[in-house]
Give the backbone structure.
Amino acid sequence: QVQVVESGGGLVQPGGSLRLSCATSGSIFSIYVMGWYRQVPGRQRELVASITRGQSTIYADSVKGRFTISRDNAKNTIYLQMNDMRPEDTAVYYCNSVTPPLSLDWGPGTQVTVSS
């Protein structure tokens, strides 16, 4: 079973940027679609961005034009570049498979807080 560890979160001001990393313990080449999810207490978990093995990407409307997901198959790592951040981006961010759905054990997540 592939294990994941998310990192790169922190406190950022509105309009600022953060880059998240999802390091995996093994190959993710066999996972067709990987994604970044975010969780806020009282809300449904949201799929923020997804990326296929072939580097095609899909974004939630709430982050489109601001966030960029990338996948380094050689390093078995998924990234999320977050620009022009807003307070509503505040959440714990997790990575997991999208296709097949949620096939990996959840990692610890990384806290992102956007506040002035």
